[in-house]
Write a structure and sequence with these properties.
alpha+beta; single chain; 21% strand
Length: 149
């Protein structure tokens, strides 16, 4: 089964009045098709304004397509799979709450969705930190105390 699949996805924005060159629609994404299999990593490249950010927003459910379908693990994205898909925005100063400790930032989604017991959440935070190469000592640090990389 495919991890992620986009089939004929379009995103069209209506604009008030007449826009540039008399058009009243902006075509942000046109007929996008994409298949990502489990374990696969993809990169999306293109010139400014070609739809990369719109594509990312559609994939994580922040933007609904005007037409086409988005499926995550075989189910339409709008059928409860949204909590399994997330996005870290490009601007590091706004992507993470700079006042919260790293462990708290990682744990928040687990708390919000009540995943496991409190002890299991603590263990999962430690596992996730280790998975990305963060030492246990970073748990109490705030994002500004860590390298941007």
């Amino acid at each position: 089964m495919n991890l992620l699949e986009l089939d004929g996805v379009h995103v069209v924005h209506k604009i008030r009045g007449r826009g540039l060159f008399g058009h009243d629609h902006v075509y942000a994404l046109t007929d996008a098709h994409l298949v990502v299999n489990p374990g696969e990593t993809i990169g999306v490249v293109g010139e400014s304004g070609c739809g990369k950010s719109t594509l990312a927003k559609v994939i994580v459910g922040l933007q609904r397509p005007t037409a086409g379908t988005v499926r995550f693990r075989g189910k339409p994205l709008d059928e409860g799979s949204g909590r399994e898909v997330g996005m870290v925005f490009q601007d590091p100063s706004t992507a993470l709450n700079r006042r919260l400790a790293v462990a708290k930032i990682i744990r928040d989604p687990l708390d919000v969705h009540r995943v496991g017991t409190p002890a299991e959440r603590d263990e999962r935070v430690r596992e996730l930190m280790a998975l990305v190469g963060l030492p246990a000592s970073a748990a109490d640090a705030v994002p500004g105390q860590l390298s941007g990389g």
